[in-house]
Amino acid sequence: MSGGATDEAIAALRRIRERLDSGAGLAEAWGDAASGLPREAREALARAARRLQGDYPEDDWGFDEEFADALRPFMDFMYDRWWRVEADGVARVPAHGRGLLVANHAGILPWDATMMALAILRHHPLPRHPRFLVLDWAFHLPYVGTVMRKVGGVVASPYNALRLLEEDQLVAVFPEGVKGAGKDWSERYRLQRFGRGGFVEIALRAGAPLVPVAVVGSEEIYPKIGEAKLLARLTGMPYFPLTPTFPWLGPLGAVPLPSRWRIEFCDPIETASYGPDAADDRRLVMELTERVRDTIQEAVFQNLVKRGPAFI
Amino acid sequence: MAGRRVVITGIASHLGTELARRLEQDAAIEHVAGIDTRPPRVRLERTEFIEADIRSPVVTRLLPRVAPDTLVHNRIERLPGPQAHDINVIGTLQLLAACEKTPSLEAIVIRGSAGIYGAEPAAPQFFTEEMANLYPLRTRFQRDVGEIENYFETFANRHPEVTCTMLRYQPAIGRGLRTQIARYLSLRAVPTYMGFDPRIQLIHVEDALDALVAAVARPVRGAVNVAAEGTIGLTRMIRMAGRPVVPIPHPAFAAATGAARRLGLPPFSHDLRRLLQHGRAVDVTRLVEEVGYRPRYTTAEAVADFAGSRVEAEAA
Asked: Is B125's CB within 8 Å of A52's CB?
């Protein structure tokens, strides 16, 4: 920081003190003091003051749009520079009403969910924030659970998924679950079992279209070469990954590798015509589950070819 | 048709007294009686006050004498204390014994607690009434509520002619109400679990009363959640109350608040601690559609009203 800027900041702090001493509220004091600062900084300060007084939007699920927007520059950097994401078929995501995005999953941190969300926010004609279902263990941890919730994460439970869809939200699920997250390097891009098809039951019950999504690139960011069972038990994590950098480099090891990504949104599969009772039809549920899984698997292979080498 | 006869337990509590006042004004109510160990703080016009402890067998003689058609069980102790378990479990048992001997009874409305759902990190965002058994009952108070619910369920099955309404209340907040959550928000510095910002759902005290009045007017069978619509993040709630937040790492929270208690600060019950770490919200569809009451305040509005009342009080 240059000398001039420091002086300006100190002067601003003094003005806050003076205004507070003369009996003004915190928000006003900040607002007045900041009048000497550039507009952007003023807005940021005003926003911070508002947040300190509890004046910020949050919905019933804890999603905090302002917070999510504040992370946007960092996410944009990851999207453009780090992973050089290319997104296809974003317009196939329903523009309004309910919808269930189903994607392949890799890595214990939901980078794939955030990049998917960003692809929709940047390229969809009517952008909206999708909610994504997060494995419940994240909510046992301090900070992790809070941040997940603020950016649109919701505990993965059928009750929550159904309720979100009934509120006409866009919901993202990763049916591979822990199995997908804990995949070995050698198994990358081979989709694991899609659970018992719970996500299809929910889509049928809510009459929400299923949108298969193939994510390529996420499976190279943390190449898992082994796991530590004892550490997993001690930390309560579903598995404790060992990668070439983690945990050897400490927190630095959590920095994802800069692979090149492609995200393809495939044609939606309509479910409303089956009616909500079809959710109990095992044959239909398994059939749709397989269809979604095959679509994603095929799209993953195609996009792997389109992408070419993983890191350059 | 003769008017209704209502008996209220715990009449000396804020909600008990207010309920009696509301019922007094209702011409359809012929008789109101209240049971408690101490008289209500304000004078009631036509409510018969019966001084008795619901834990004592004497209620078995008192209740049939009044011959009520509706019983409102409002004597459930939410604050931890040496008496709480006795009042909750033995009190309920004695009361039910009295109900067995009161053939005039048609409806029982219980002011229970949403605490039965617990506060769990991986819980559904909104508990519906049939989700009471998703998690084990972890705290003393939860086990008390579990027993109360079981007793009433058994009673309801034995007496299909009596409609039992189990109202599962979220914590109430409002002007002049000294609930645990109100005391918590009134601390000079408010401790929170570091890194946790749970979803909290409350009910405004006026809505708590109106929901009770609505349930007495129109008892339905089974459990009904009673809460304000919407949730609020704990941090946002404390900021709206205008208090500084003191984050404490979660392994040390119980010890820290325990030590603070010895210095004279109010206690943090096991339930409150779990609530502050993981939060809880319930679905109120049944309250709105079947009991026919829609709370007027959302959780955020209830907190704003509480914060406003305190600013006024401090200015005065």
From this structure: no
Please judge whether A146 and B197 are an interchain contact, meaning their C-beta atoms are less than 8 angstroms apart: yes
Cβ-Cβ contacts under 8 Å, B250 against chain A: 142
- Conformation bin of residue A121: beta by default, left when phi > 0, alpha when psi is -120 to 50: alpha
Going from N- to C-terminal start, the domains of chain B cover 4-175+202-230+280-299
Residues 6+ apart with CB under 8 A from A108: A181, A182, A222, A237, A239, A241
What is the spatial distance between Cα B212 and Cα B191, in angstroms, rounded to a whole number? 32
Separation between Cα atoms, residue A132 and residue A289, nearest integer Å: 19
Distance CA A195, CA B305 (A): 47
C-alpha–C-alpha distance, residues B114 and B282, integer Å: 8
What's the token pair of residue B22?
A: 């509301």
DSSP E strand stretches across A84-228: 86-88, 99-103, 131-134, 153-155, 170-173, 210-216, 226-227
The span from the CA of B262 to the CA of B282, in Å, is 34
Find the helix or strand (DSSP H, E) in which B172 lies.
strand B172-173
Shortest Cα–Cα distance, B189 to chain A (Å):
15
Global pTM value: 0.86
Distance CA A143, CA A141 (A): 6
CA end-to-end span of chain A, whole Å? 35
Integer Cα distance of B89 and B144 in angstroms: 6
Q: Which long-range contacts (CB under 8 A, 24 or more apart) does A43-52 make?
A: A51/B239, A52/A26, A52/A27, A52/B239
* pLDDT (mean) for B201-228: 97
Nearest to B149 by CA among B161, B136, B167, B135: B167
* 3-class DSSP state of A262: strand
Cα separation of B103 and B162, whole Å?
Answer: 10
What does the pLDDT look like over A117-145, one tens digit per residue?
A: 999 999 999 999 999 998 887 888 888 88
Tens-place pLDDT, residues A155-181: 989 999 999 999 999 999 998 877 766
Reported in sequence order, the residue ranges of chain A that DSSP labels E, i.e. its strands, are: 86-88, 99-103, 131-134, 153-155, 170-173, 210-216, 226-227, 241-242, 262-265
Q: Report, at the CATH architecture level, how domain A65-221+256-307 is classified.
A: 3-Layer(aba) Sandwich (3.40)
Q: Is the pLDDT of residue B55 over 60?
A: yes
As for the ipTM of the complex, it is: 0.86
| Contact yes or no for B239 and A157 at CB 8 A | no
Q: Which two tokens stand for residue B202?
A: 């409350």
What distance in Å separates residue B230's CA from the closest CA in chain A? Answer: 5
Cβ–Cβ gap A53/B236 under 8 Å: no
Q: Are strands A210-216 and A262-265 parallel, antiparallel or unpaired?
A: antiparallel
Question: Which CATH number applies to B4-175+202-230+280-299: 3.40.50.10860, 3.40.50.720, 3.30.413.10, 1.10.510.10?
Answer: 3.40.50.720
Query: For B196, which of A56, A61, A146 is closest by C-beta distance?
Result: A146
For A234, residues 6+ apart whose C-beta sits below 8 A from its C-beta are none
CA distances from B108 to A25, B36, B55 (A): 50, 17, 18
Asked if A140 and A124 touch (Cβ cutoff 8 Å), the reply is: no
Q: Which of A56, A143, A163 sits opposite B125 (nearest CB)?
A: A163
